[in-house]
Amino acid sequence: MKHYPNPRIISAVKASAATFAILLLASVFGSGLANSYPRPQIPSAVGQVALDFTLKDQDGKDFKLSDQHGHWVLLFFYRGYW
């Protein structure tokens, strides 16, 4: 007695393989699309003098930007998307 594969199983395997191939191609070629963030609303200020400001640090002390004159300072502003 010959055993023939079930046509439903074959079509399900083909559909799974096609879905996997599409997801693989999308992850390889579409990775730039997934990381598209909104464009900045203001131009870059690299190399320009920052305005003086005072904020509280993690210990509650005042941090004044002008007190850091002569030191390297990295200003990192994070806008959360929540």
Strand percentage: 5-15%
Shape: rod-shaped
Helical region count? 2
Number of DSSP strand runs: 2
Number of domains: 1
N-to-C order of helices and strands? HHEE
Give, in spatial order, the strands making up the sheet with the most strands.
1-2
Average pLDDT works out at: 76
Structural class: mainly alpha
Structure commentary:
The protein has helices at residues 7-29, 31-34, and strands at 54-56, 62-64. The longest helix has 23 residues, at 7-29. The chain contains two helices and two strands; from the N terminus they run ααββ. The protein is rod-shaped and about 90 Å long. It has 82 residues and is mainly alpha-helical. It has one domain (7-68). It has a two-stranded antiparallel ribbon with strand order 1-2. The model has no long low-confidence stretch (mean pLDDT 76).
Short summary:
With 82 residues, the protein is mainly alpha-helical. It has helices at 7-29, 31-34; strands at residues 54-56, 62-64.
Give structural attributes.
single chain, 82 residues, mainly alpha, two-stranded antiparallel sheet, 2 strands, 33% helix, rod-shaped
Topology summary:
Elements: H1 7-29, H2 31-34, E1 54-56, E2 62-64
Antiparallel strand pairs: 1-2
